[in-house]
Design goal:
ten-stranded mixed beta sheet, 552 residues, alpha/beta, globular
């Protein structure tokens, strides 16, 4: 079945398999294309924009993802988890003459929210968000099981700085989409390697510098086997703090990447899948950055999920659809940030709840609508009637509208993956938050280029980003990391560094394209040939068979 997206106007297809899935859940097929559906979900997730404000319970100063000018009451995480308040207190009766989304949004503005999304223990990690089981971390977002990490979103890692989706790694810097690395920097799509720098698509390598596409190699410079003596002499003379040396290295690496064959889709131990960065999964389509998923479609950054469609940032869920964030749910539909729940529709931040519709902040409840308690029979009858009301307003089957998001569009991860200008955001009816540049403090501090010359008292200085002017500081643990790795002090704010990493990655979309060797049709995140733009213009994209032939 082909449909026209209500927002973009583009045509998209709903397969027979998809329709069978929607019938199984008792929900209608989507009215938006996959891109607009994921944009809508991402627009309710603010990871990296943190503010100082007062707790609405204690009045103490807290760090929060919610700006103080928002109407939502915000508590510290400890206060929010306490028994000093009850979300049922904010229960609303249904107004059958008004839109459900409007009524639910009113409930959301009344029910207290936790200042940060910390799902489990976060020790000595006050400036992190959407995290769990972390220790001694600073400005990490969307991470679990990490220690002594800063800036980025590593997983199961230790001592990683400025890394994007790096897993099971240690002592890494500026690495992107990598796994099982040790003491490495400036790598992308590299696996099971150590002491490698400026590399792309390396596997099982050690002591390699500015190389691409190598397998189980050592002592290679610019893809050439130079032997241990020459390699160690070069590395001893190379300085990461010499901007000229680094620029020339990046130029030569870029030439190697353009000459290198690129696999149409990165996957491992998979069966019957398409998308990119798919691991240990089966029967998954149009999915990105997923692990241990089965019978799923349109998922992004999900782990251990089964029979789930249109999900982001989740783990251990089953039969969930249009769901954003958090763990261990069954049949959570059109909901966000719920934990350990069963049979939810249109719920937000609920914990251990069952059979709830349009609820926010509830814990250990069942048969509630807009936080109001019903009997089982009343609940089932009222839900059927409420679904008819939502159909009347064109709401049933739609995720929460972006206009009701707690955050401005440019505060959210939607701006990361689907960027819009301020004018485009306002034209769509979304909110935009302007920065108050008058608060930026100018800095005349001259950062020494050589890390060995950087004094410890730099940690007392307020630095200014050379691109945005935003202020940032260097922490003592951060300085120790740079000195150990012989890396220069960054001259850009961590948000600008994050943006730069995003530009190096492929988008979350699939395009039809022919293999550049055998011509067989492939689905790939690389753009179709007739719409290729730099830096992808000269990339040679191959199907799996041709790629393996070229590598081995």
């Amino acid at each position: 079945m082909k449909k026209i997206c209500k927002i973009s106007g583009s045509e998209f297809e709903i397969s027979d398999k998809d329709m069978e899935y929607y019938r199984r859940l008792g929900v209608p097929g989507p009215t938006l294309c996959p891109k607009e559906r994921v944009r809508r979900r991402m627009a309710v997730r603010n990871e990296r924009n943190l503010y100082r404000r007062k707790s609405d319970m204690s009045g103490e100063t807290i760090i929060s993802m919610y700006h103080s000018d928002l109407p939502y009451p915000v508590y510290s995480k400890e206060e929010w988890l306490s028994d000093k308040w009850d979300a049922a207190k904010y229960a609303q009766s249904i107004d059958w003459n008004r839109s459900f989304f409007q009524q639910f949004h009113e409930l959301q503005t009344k029910v207290p929210r936790a200042n940060l999304a910390i799902f489990t223990n976060a020790e000595n990690s006050d400036y992190c968000n959407y995290v769990g089981d972390i220790k001694n971390c600073y400005l990490c977002f969307g991470s679990i099981f990490i220690e002594d990490c800063m800036y980025g979103n590593p997983y199961y890692s230790k001592d990683c700085v400025d890394c994007f989706l790096v897993r099971k790694s240690e002592f890494c810097y500026e690495c992107i989409d990598c796994e099982k690395l040790y003491h490495s920097a400036y790598l992308q799509e590299c696996y099971e390697s150590s002491d490698c720098f400026f590399g792309y698509d390396l596997k099982g390598c050690r002591d390699c510098f500015a190389c691409t596409g190598l397998r189980k190699k050592q002592y290679h410079l610019f893809n050439e086997d130079v032997g241990r003596e020459k390699y160690e002499k070069f590395f001893k003379e190379f300085s990461f703090c010499d901007s000229g040396m680094v620029a020339e290295t990046e130029r030569r690496l870029d030439d190697l990447k353009k000459a290198h064959s690129h696999l149409s889709m990165v996957s491992l131990n998979c069966e019957n899948v398409n998308g990119n960065y798919i691991f240990n999964s089966k029967n998954c389509f149009d999915c990105f950055q997923i692990t241990e998923n089965e019978d799923c479609s349109y998922n992004i950054q999900t782990t251990t999920s089964k029979d789930c469609y249109d999900m982001n940032y989740t783990e251990e869920n089953e039969l969930c659809c249009e769901y954003l964030g958090n763990y261990r749910n069954y049949k959570a539909i059109y909901s966000a940030l719920c934990y350990g729940c069963h049979d939810l529709k249109y719920c937000d931040y609920c914990t251990n709840c069952k059979n709830c519709f349009g609820c926010a902040g509830l814990r250990n409840k069942q048969y509630c609508i807009l936080n109001k308690q019903y009997s089982k029979e009343e609940y089932e009858e009222t839900v059927m009637r409420l679904m008819e009301l939502m159909k009347k307003y064109g709401e049933w089957g739609e995720f929460f509208p972006i206009k009701f998001s707690p955050f401005a569009y440019n505060e959210t991860v939607a701006q990361d993956y689907f960027p819009l200008s301020r004018e485009e955001v306002l034209k769509r009816g979304y909110r935009w938050r302007d920065e108050d540049e008058s608060e930026f403090k100018k800095s005349n501090y001259q950062i020494p280029s050589d890390i060995d010359q950087v004094p410890d008292d730099i940690c007392n200085e307020i630095l200014a980003c050379e691109i945005s002017g935003r202020n940032y500081k260097i922490t003592p643990s951060e300085l120790r990391f740079y000195k150990r790795m012989k890396l220069p002090i960054p001259k850009k704010h961590f948000n600008e560094r994050h943006k730069a990493r995003l530009t190096m990655r492929l988008p979350y979309e699939l395009n039809e394209r022919g293999c550049d060797k055998c011509g067989v049709e492939i689905l790939t995140p690389y753009p179709s040939v007739n719409r290729v733009k730099e830096p992808l213009t000269t990339f040679r994209v191959l199907c799996e068979k041709c790629y393996l032939d070229s590598i081995y």
